[in-house]
Amino acid sequence: SATAAVAATAAAPVPPPPAPDFVIVGGGTAGCALAARLCAGLPRANVVLLERGAPRNETEELIVRAPLRTAAAWRTPTLTAAFPSAPNAGLRGRAVTLLTGTTLGGSSAINGAQWSEPAAGGGGAGTWGVAGLTAANAAAYYARAARTVGAVVPPRRRRPAYTDAWLDAAAAAGLPRVDGSPGVAPPPDRGSWVHPLAVTPDGRRADACAAYVAPALAGACAANLRVHQGVSVTKLLYPTARCGGGRRCRRPTAVAGIEYMPSPGAGAPTKAGDARVLYARRGVLVAAGPYGSAPLLHRSGIGPAAALRSAGIPPLVDLPVGEGISARASGTVIGRYSGVPLAWVNNATAAALPAVLAQWRAGRGGLLATAPTSGLSRWTAGAGGYTSVSFSALTTPPGAPHFFATCIPNPRSVGRLRVAAANTSLAAPPVVETNLLGDPRDVATLGACMRQQQAVVAAFRPGFGMVAVAPTRGGTPFTDDAVQAAALSGLHIVGGAAVGPVLDARLRVKGFRNLWVVDASAVPTMPRSAGPMSSVYALAEFAAEAIVRQYGGVCGGGRG
Ligand SMILES: Cc1cc2nc3c(=O)[nH]c(=O)nc-3n(C[C@H](O)[C@H](O)[C@H](O)COP(=O)(O)OP(=O)(O)OC[C@H]3O[C@@H](n4cnc5c(N)ncnc54)[C@H](O)[C@@H]3O)c2cc1C
Q1: Least confident window among 85-89, 125-129, 301-305, 351-355
Q2: DSSP state letters, 10-40
Q3: From ligand 1's centre to the CA of 202, what distance in Å?
Q4: Using omega within 30 degrees of 0 as the cis cutoff, is the peptide bond preceding 155 cis?
């Protein structure tokens, strides 16, 4: 089966040459999509996908695939990395916790699974300056990805309790109910809807591994795709030594391959002698995500020269890698309800019942198949943005009858990911200056959303017994100070190796003929959708098609 094919992929070292044609660094959202499309489109090419996360055990697999267990994934260190940002001046100097997926499927394996595409003019894939990817044709790549992951609005029986009560309250507060189905016209500027999810009809998360890599390994790519888990890529390798021996470093124009080692944390500590080399005959695609790709370029000498030098890394190519990241802040309005029973998705006891587990394992859905979030609202004050709502235990202990409305505005603030020292351990997280709410207009935008959500809380029908409990009780208004005190990371981040400053119009690192970056880092500004996942998939679909077209003659195939 497809799952067995993935389970059989080894945590073992990559076999010796012949070198693969393409090496993909990072088996996340983009990496899995790229791998599946390249191996199918170029049947005579060998593709190797390297993922730092180790193969999942049965418990981890349940946490990834059962939508209700999403918050458990965030607390599982083998599935996610959680680390502090640098202090944010806009949050009065507070750091926030950042989170990312570290397992095959990447962040798509642990995220909210909400499928949201930018409306026309919303900074989607057609606006990034990628040659051949236009506002007119981008919709086709979003649609291809939506079909592959099977993004659909969950049927009524799979929606969290009280979703309709929330939609009624939102409409009463000025956010009318609209249709958010994929392929339907994008939701108008103001509205609320039940969101499409990357969840299969039998209630399993369709992450990038399940949707792309597993079927590829079980079918078209059984012979030419290898997936190696539990290995971390440490740096890029260049064709010949261009530095040292008193010679000046010459700027390389190609990469030869990568160096990798067993991921830290899994067993014995990683030693320098564990490093291995993998050459790539055609090229390397970096898809290590918003916290992985820029640091890999930095460690390989590609980045701001002065910053690299002061971090002890000899600069080879002076490019603004890590600059210009765009990260979302969030602010949550919390209500407590007393007039109706505890929402059943918030019932931790029921979720752990053997019968509930057996029902989900048998593919009959049930409680575990229900995603914790109810839906999304879109609004326009300031730079506009989205609100994700839930009646569940994403942020508080289970069992509390709470309602959460989390505002995720479109950010104007710009941050950067700083160069880490050359000897920084692989396990050390990058230094991320998220600069949340650094632009004062972002404070105003977030405040406008949170006040609007207070109005939604107040608009629940009286029998619901809903009252706001945070950031202020009841209808007490709150100030911008309170917004800055309450804001956290919205968990969405793009940029750092963006098309324009770092990548050419074909998604290659400027000046390199065979080094691509294809993931959230390549995206120049935050797409105006409720999350970047659909845009990351659309970019990977486009990039794979372009590479298949380029190499079809030499590697066989050529079908996209
Ligand atoms: C908690 C959370 C919730 C979210 N919810 C939503 C949502 O509901 N909807 C939405 O649209 N967006 C959501 N997002 C954002 C979305 O998931 C990301 O934008 C998207 O998945 C990023 O894809 P990527 O391919 O760039 O990176 P990732 O999917 O993160 O993949 C990067 C991969 O590279 C691997 N890697 C990193 N470094 C190395 C290395 N040196 N060697 C080998 N492997 C490496 C990582 O382990 C990882 O698997 C959420 C994000 C988070 C964190």
Answers
A1: 351-355
A2: -SSPPP-SSPPSEEEE--SHHHHHHHHHHHH
A3: 24
A4: no
- Strand-pair partners of 409: 385
Count of Cβ atoms closer than 10 Å to residue 511 Cβ: 14
Distance 538 CA to ligand 1 centre (A): 14
Q: Which atom of ligand 1 is nearest to the CA of 533?
A: 11
Residues framing ligand 1 (Cβ under 6 A): 25-31, 50-53, 99-102, 106-108, 110-114, 116, 232-233, 287-290, 292, 296, 491-492, 519-520, 531-534, 536
Q: Which CATH architecture has domain 2-555?
A: 3-Layer(bba) Sandwich (3.50)
Domain borders along the chain are: 2-555
- Is this prediction's ipTM beyond 0.95? yes
Question: How many whole angstroms from 313 Cα to the centroid of ligand 1?
Answer: 26
Q: If you measure from the C-alpha of residue 353 to the centroid of ligand 1, how many angstroms do you get, rounded to a whole number?
A: 31
Q: Which atom of ligand 1 is nearest to the CA of 231?
A: 43
**Tokens found for residue 554:** 């030499």
Task: Fill in the amino acid letter for 433.
Answer: E
- The tens digit of pLDDT for each residue in 267-283 reads 555 666 788 999 999 99
Per residue in 521-555, pLDDT (tens digit) is: 999 999 999 999 999 999 999 999 999 999 987 66
Q: Whose CA is nearest to atom 47 of ligand 1?
A: 102
If you search the block for the tokens 């998360």, which residue do you land on? 205
> What 8-state DSSP symbol labels residue 57?
-
pLDDT band at 400 (very low <50, low <70, confident <90, very high): confident
Nearest-CA residue for ligand 1 atom 31 is: 28
Output the pLDDT for position 221. 97
At 214, list the tokens. Answer: 């597993």
